[in-house]
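Retry 2 of 3 after timeout on previous attempt. Resubmitting structure tokens to design endpoint.
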């Protein structure tokens, strides 16, 4: 992995590039995905399934639906017309991004050749001036940039750039990055403060341009990203705005409520956060803070899903969170993880990593089946089990399968981060995943080894191996769901915990072999929703640790929606290694005396079709509670025994 990074630096130097400066207004820097290796009973099999099953499956579908052939046709490598929907290029790019992350984790000559062959076709499809969008190249080249609102030229370019950056970081090869640079230069030649004023209807390019800036050091890409942020919603600089569906109703810095298409909104916020991290634009930071609060206080499902409405795949009003008709697109959940991760790096505040964890173990994982070949586009919180509500091998609009395939192998890059406070170097542990990491820290290098059975068990053993003994701080996230966490260093309890912004901070001179034991109690909790959430009144959800549970008919006598919990249910957690790939289930007794079982939400719909429900009725809990209870104070979800 180190060799790849050194090769990357060498290649950039030869090309006249230099890596961009570390964002001055970002408190933390993520430890690169190339420096973290999993050996985890929960995640390692999923990464392997992604490499061995999901990637080949998606390549096969992209081939037989003409997505890859479109590049060959545009590059005059074969004859034929454009196939499919105008934005299909993006699915190939996301798939290649996922393959690149996978190659960094597990070298695979066959996969590498498949990737190289696809990149060669993409390079052939690129026009002499750098333009790359097979729909217009094959259909009508004169239509370039004529439909920014509903065409997806800029959106597809963004996904291509992201894939090229990932490929370069993973392999050190310039083949794809050269295509990205040439395409970005083409866009920069058309759009800008003194050029054409326009934005894409589907945000994505903004965050991709910042990534390209970070890997090349070419500031024009950062400036172009900022330009697209600056003119979105700006009436004085545009002939016409697109409206709320496109987050193009107000200038970004003036927006207070998250609106419109959920995926678009998340990509916009991720890009705006990246621009703010590099520029220090406080008005942009403040806007992101307001939009974040609107999401987490009013518009997020307990699973981390976002986007309540099928119409427009969009956010609803405050507290509009229906269950059976919930949209919760898998892509939107992934977009939320992107944004939350960036905010966490900017502010070194665990509330953002808490959301990454929540959406990761629930709203994202539900989007892919255990076999790696079946996917959800929509992730409802209740289902009648009918055919249209099952995972499918692919979709005509295939954004979700290819998005999951690129997100899962990128996960190692979300685990650790580094920073500095008061002159002291810091390592942040954001996620609990067994494995090893090599963390550069000032002039030192620290090897971390994490051992855990998370998310089924809250015990984490972290072994610290610095190359040389040195004073630094280790900051471990204490999840928002956890009460009573304990820490010990080399067997000696660390009490009381020094918790700052959700992180337990251990500052000391660390020596090779030092061991940190973190204990995160995982009681089974019933969660209630703010009474303003009409769909959840009189109901509770069940959670243990970071995992949200659901009840399926197959485990509960053929029905689930009729389950009513007694006033004080007695639950038991039990790990079953022969069920659904190995999961902890929760068992209990319903009010009517029947035995009931709940399984993790992310593994529902793998057995007999039937009802599924997250929010079950609770005996004694009013279906018409007061919506004026002051103790909620903007909170959307809380344990039922709150304040008890």
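Retry 2 succeeded. Sequence:
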């Amino acid at each position: 992995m180190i060799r790849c990074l050194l090769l990357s630096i060498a290649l950039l130097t030869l090309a006249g590039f230099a890596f961009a400066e570390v964002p001055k207004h970002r408190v933390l820097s993520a430890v690169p995905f190339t420096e973290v290796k999993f050996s985890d009973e929960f995640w390692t099999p999923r990464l392997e399934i992604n490499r061995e099953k999901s990637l080949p499956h998606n390549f096969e579908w992209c081939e037989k639906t003409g997505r890859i052939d479109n590049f060959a046709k545009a590059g005059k490598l074969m004859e034929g017309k454009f196939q499919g929907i105008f934005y299909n290029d993006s699915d190939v790019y996301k798939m290649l991004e996922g393959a690149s992350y996978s190659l960094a984790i597990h070298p695979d000559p066959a996969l590498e050749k498949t990737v190289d062959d696809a990149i060669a076709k993409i390079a052939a499809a690129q026009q002499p001036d750098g333009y790359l969008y097979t729909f217009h190249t094959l259909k009508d080249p004169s239509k370039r940039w004529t439909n920014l609102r509903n065409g997806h030229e800029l959106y597809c370019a963004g996904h291509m750039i992201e894939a090229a950056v990932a490929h370069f970081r993973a392999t050190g090869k310039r083949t794809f990055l050269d295509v990205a640079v040439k395409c970005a230069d083409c866009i920069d030649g058309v759009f800008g403060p003194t050029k054409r004023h326009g934005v894409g209807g589907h945000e994505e390019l903004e965050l991709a341009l910042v990534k390209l800036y970070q890997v090349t050091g070419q500031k024009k890409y950062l400036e172009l990203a900022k330009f697209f942020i600056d003119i979105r919603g700006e009436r004085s600089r545009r002939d016409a705005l697109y409206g709320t569906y496109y987050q193009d109703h107000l200038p970004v810095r003036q927006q207070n409520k998250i609106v419109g298409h959920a995926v678009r909104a998340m990509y916009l916020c991720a890009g705006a956060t990246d621009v703010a991290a590099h520029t220090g634009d406080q008005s942009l930071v403040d806007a992101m803070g307001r939009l974040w609060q609107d999401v987490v206080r009013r518009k997020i499902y307990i699973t981390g899903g976002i986007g309540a409405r099928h119409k427009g795949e969009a956010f609803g009003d405050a507290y509009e969170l229906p269950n059976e008709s919930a949209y919760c697109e898998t892509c939107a959940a992934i977009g939320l993880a992107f944004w939350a991760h960036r905010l966490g790096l900017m502010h070194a505040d665990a509330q953002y990593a808490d959301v990454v964890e929540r959406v990761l173990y629930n709203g994202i994982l539900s989007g892919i089946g255990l076999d790696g070949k079946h996917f959800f586009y929509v992730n409802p919180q209740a289902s009648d089990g009918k055919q249209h509500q099952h995972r499918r091998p692919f979709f005509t609009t295939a954004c979700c399968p290819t998005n999951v395939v690129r997100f899962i192998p990128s996960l190692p890059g979300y685990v650790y981060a580094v920073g500095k406070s008061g002159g002291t170097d810091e390592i942040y542990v954001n996620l609990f995943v067994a494995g090893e990491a090599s963390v550069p820290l000032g002039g030192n290098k620290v090897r971390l080894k994490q051992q855990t059975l998370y998310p089924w068990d809250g015990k984490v053993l972290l072994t610290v191996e610095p190359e040389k003994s040195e004073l630094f701080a280790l900051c471990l996230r204490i999840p928002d769901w956890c009460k009573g966490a304990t820490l010990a260093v080399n067997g000696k309890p660390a009490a009381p915990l020094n918790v700052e912004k959700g992180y337990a901070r251990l500052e000391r001179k660390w020596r090779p072999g030092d061991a940190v034991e973190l204990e995160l109690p995982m009681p089974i909790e019933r969660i209630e929703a703010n009474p303003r959430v009409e769909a959840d009144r009189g109901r509770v959800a069940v959670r243990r640790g970071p995992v949200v549970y659901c009840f399926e008919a197959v485990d509960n006598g053929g029905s689930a929606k009729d389950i009513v919990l007694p006033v004080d249910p007695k639950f038991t957690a039990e790990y079953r290694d022969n069920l659904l790939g190995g999961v902890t289930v929760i068992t209990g007794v319903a009010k009517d005396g029947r035995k009931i079982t709940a399984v993790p939400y992310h593994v529902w719909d793998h057995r007999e079709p039937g009802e599924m429900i997250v929010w079950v009725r609770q005996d004694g809990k009013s279906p018409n509670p007061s919506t004026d209870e002051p103790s909620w104070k903007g909170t959307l979800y809380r344990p039922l025994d709150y304040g008890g």
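Attempt log closed. The mean pLDDT is 94.
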